[in-house]
Structures are given as structure tokens and as C-alpha cells.
Amino acid sequence: MLVAFNIILDDIVFPDGRTAMGVVGGGGPQAAFGMRLWADSVGLAANVGDELPQSAWAWLRESGIDTTGVRVIESSRTPRAWQVTEEDGRRTHVWRVRPASPISFDQLPESYRAAEGYHFGIHPGSPDLAAAAELRREGRVVSVEMFRASQRLLEPTELFAMLSSATIFSEGLREAQSLVGPGSARSVARRLVEAGESRAQLLTLRLGDEGSLVVEGQTGRAVRVPAVPVRVSNVVGAGNAYCGGFLAGWILWRDLARAGACGAVAASFVLERAGLPVVTDQLRAESQRRLDALTPLIEYTSL
């Protein structure tokens, strides 16, 4: 099983003023979507309010995502936020309903606590890394991503703690630059690898329409994975879908290029529309078609 965390209802504002309200989102469903394209057993863990729309429950059920880890808290509300997007890809997150206490690892069903892989979204200013670090010490595959840019460069000890908690550390280039300063994708990746003393086994930098750079920390081997060519209608959630797809791809094949392509394909479906498509047999078949088309275009390189 692979596990993702948390649910948010997104109210998306597009650059032209259009809106999409009450879209099931947050890092949990978006990462779970990416996982589910490739993996058969995916679970979602979250505390939600009793007003979570039936459409959200239906999407989870129809996509084959296990919800025994979703706890309904009576007289509570599901976290909800504005997602204001700009033409240049920037996104501003504004809480409408702030999250209450997050679900703790001890509250997870037994099958979730025994999962092979996990994806965590963390706050750069106050990251809770204890569960991720412990799971990694136990030999699980742990994917970590900041869900927003840092407001300051992190101290070396802070950056080391964040990177060493993860098997896979994944960021957009802008967010990664907020940790170590400006620079090209290669230079930022090199600084992150050095800051973590190669403790993160894998580093992925998402580069928008230029695809992604995937680096193996201990060897410096790298691949450049192109973006899947699609008409972009929405950027909210594409990064999380990439993370989920990459995690699933890595666990299944343990191959840099294959995992990066799985992430890119997952992101491509989110970019095409507001809201997550239902994971069906037909969608998984289209995922494989996109993967097959993308694989020959991957560039093998090094830092």
C-alpha cells in the first residue's frame, strides 16, 4: 500500500477570472491520484468535517482509493482554501477554513501503518519530520515535499534534517530556490544534495513546461524528463500528482527515468482540467500510452 495525507477543498481562481469551487484537492487526493495511476493499493488519511461533499467521497470510491484512514469529525469543517493562479504559474494559497488538528500516525489503520511508501507535505517554517524520519529508518520509502516556498533560507542544520528525513525529496524549482538561493536547476540540485550530505536517495526538481530533473543523491546520476505535451488549463495539484506518480513508479521499478516519467504523466492529467479525473481502467491505459511515448525522449545525464 501507498499512503497520502490530508484533504482540502479548493476554490480555484484562474488568471482570466474564472473559478472552480469546492474542488477536492490538497496534497493528499492529488498525490493519491498520481499513485493510483500505477499502483493498485492506495490509501488516503485525513481528518475531515461532516460536510465533505458527496462528490468528494464518490471520486475517492470510483478511483479505487481506500478511505478507511479518513476520519469524519462531527461538528467540524473540512479545510478549504482559495487557490489564486497567475499566468506565469505562480499560485497564492489563502485559507478560508483552516485545518484543525492533523491526523496522527497512531490514528492510522493498521494496514496504513504497514504501508511500503508514504508522501508527506510539510510546512517549511515548522516542518514535522518525526514520522517521516522514523518511517525511513524502518526502511519505508518516504516522499517529502514542502507545500509552499520558504520565507527564508534555511540554516544548514534545518536543511539537513529536512533532506535526511526523505527517501525522495521533491520540489518545484521556485520552492527549491527558496531553500538555498537562486540558480539553475543543476546548481540548485547540487546544493541540495550537498546540504543533505546525499542522505536523500533521490531528488526531483519540477521545472514547469521544461519537465523535471531527477537526481540520485549518492551517485550524481540524473535524468531530464520532458513534460508531457498537453493543453494546460490548470496548475493546481500538478506537483502533488507528480510526487504521487513518482513515488509509485520508484517503488514499482526502482528506475530514475521510469519513476520520473510516471510523475510527469500523472501531472499531465491534472494540468488538463480543474479537478481530478476519476481513475478508471481507460485512464490507466492512457497513462501507459503517454508513458510509452515519453520514455524515448528522456535524457540521461549527471550533475
Labels describing this entry:
303 residues; alpha/beta; UDP-N-acetylmuramoyl-L-alanine:D-glutamate ligase; 10-stranded mixed beta sheet; 4-stranded mixed beta sheet; 14 strands; globular
Brief synopsis:
The chain has 10 helices and 14 strands.
Explain this structure to me?
The structure is a single chain. The chain has helices at 27-36, 54-62, 110-113, 130-137, 156-164, 173-180, 185-195, 238-253, 256-271, 281-294, and strands spanning 2-5, 8-13, 19-25, 42-49, 66-73, 80-85, 91-97, 117-122, 141-146, 168-172, 202-206, 212-216, 221-225, 299-302. With 303 residues, it is an alpha/beta fold. It has one domain (2-302): Ribokinase (UDP-N-acetylmuramoyl-L-alanine:D-glutamate ligase, 3-Layer(aba) Sandwich). The strands form two sheets. A ten-stranded mixed beta sheet has the order 5-4-1-8-9-10-11-12-13-14, sandwiched between helices. A four-stranded mixed beta sheet has the order 3-2-6-7. The radius of gyration is 18 Å and the shape is globular.
Supply the CATH superfamily name.
Ribokinase
Mean pLDDT metric = 95
Please count the beta strands (DSSP E, at least 2 residues each).
14
Backbone shape? globular
User: In percent terms, what proportion of residues is strand?
Assistant: 25-35%
Output the CATH class name: Alpha Beta
Structural class, from secondary structure content? alpha/beta
Which series of helices and strands comes N to C?
Answer: EEEHEHEEEHEHEHEHHEEEHHHE
Strand order of the largest sheet: 5-4-1-8-9-10-11-12-13-14
Give the radius of gyration.
18 Å
Low-confidence stretches: none
Please work out how many helical segments DSSP would assign: 10
How many domains? Answer: 1
